[in-house]
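> call design_seq(struct)
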């Protein structure tokens, strides 16, 4: 029996939803507006909502020529380099996590091994451990073995963020698949590898696509690891910080960088929204 809500209750609920939506959207709108303003307009108080938009901030971000005089002084950023770094590091982290995490999740879901739950929670513990607990000792190690400021080193250390998530999500997805399907394939003579490749993985496809999008976003927005373990290979999150150095505060240019930084995640979420929803709910109902 469906509960009937009064008109006043529906109005109140809609008002609450609209208020929450405005609270969430306002920072994004403010950043977009700031990216289209001049420095002087950003610093005025009270803030101005009516202004002549300019694309100079985006031009400053992607100026490949020699640094020239702008309304902000003489600066050169070349924001395409950190964007490329973030794409390479995030994609590399996703691929490595899938190659390692899915088999690990399958073993934890289907095999009876000693201390299975202890191992699973040990892996999950890395996801919630303080990042500095990992970064400080790795900083010295990476400099010693030559992995500091390299794509390989960054992809490796990003596994602290992405791998535990893939292991646990894939384990949950696999446990949601009836074991009878695998047993029937084995009775027909299919080898374990063939069962995984031709039966389990196709069934996991929706969940793995959603999980891949999720950990890509986690890697894309990570800040501490890139700050401590990279220089020329710094991701976009670290590159934006350089615009807030003491005495150099280009707020409109930084806002333009934030807008550009949000474009790739937004595109991925819009394109893979169906898979992302399926990935987050896959395995939730037993």
């Amino acid at each position: 029996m469906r509960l009937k809500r009064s008109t006043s209750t529906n109005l109140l609920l809609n008002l609450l939803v609209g208020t929450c939506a405005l609270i969430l959207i306002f920072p994004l709108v403010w950043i977009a507006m700031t990216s289209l303003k001049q420095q002087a307009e950003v610093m005025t108080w009270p803030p101005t909502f009516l202004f002549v938009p300019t694309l100079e901030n985006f031009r400053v971000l992607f100026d490949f020529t020699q640094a020239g005089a702008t309304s902000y002084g003489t600066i050169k950023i070349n924001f395409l380099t950190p964007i490329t770094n973030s794409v390479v590091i995030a994609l590399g982290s996703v691929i490595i996590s899938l190659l390692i995490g899915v088999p690990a999740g399958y073993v934890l879901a289907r095999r009876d091994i000693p201390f299975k739950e202890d191992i699973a929670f040990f892996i999950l513990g890395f996801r919630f451990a303080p990042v500095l607990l990992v970064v400080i000792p790795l900083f010295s190690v990476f400099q010693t073995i030559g992995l500091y400021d390299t794509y390989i080193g960054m992809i490796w250390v990003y596994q602290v963020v992405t791998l535990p998530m893939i292991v646990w999500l894939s384990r949950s997805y696999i446990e949601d698949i009836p074991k009878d399907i695998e047993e029937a394939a084995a009775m027909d003579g299919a080898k374990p590898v063939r069962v995984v490749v031709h039966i389990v993985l196709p069934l996991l496809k929706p969940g793995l696509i959603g999980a891949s999008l999720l950990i890509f976003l986690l890697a894309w927005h990570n800040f501490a690891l890139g700050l401590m373990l990279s220089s020329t290979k710094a991701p976009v999150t670290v590159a934006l910080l350089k615009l807030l150095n003491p005495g150099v505060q280009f707020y409109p240019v930084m806002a333009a960088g934030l807008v550009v930084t949000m474009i790739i995640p937004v595109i991925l979420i819009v394109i893979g929204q169906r898979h992302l929803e399926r990935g987050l709910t896959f395995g939730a109902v037993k």
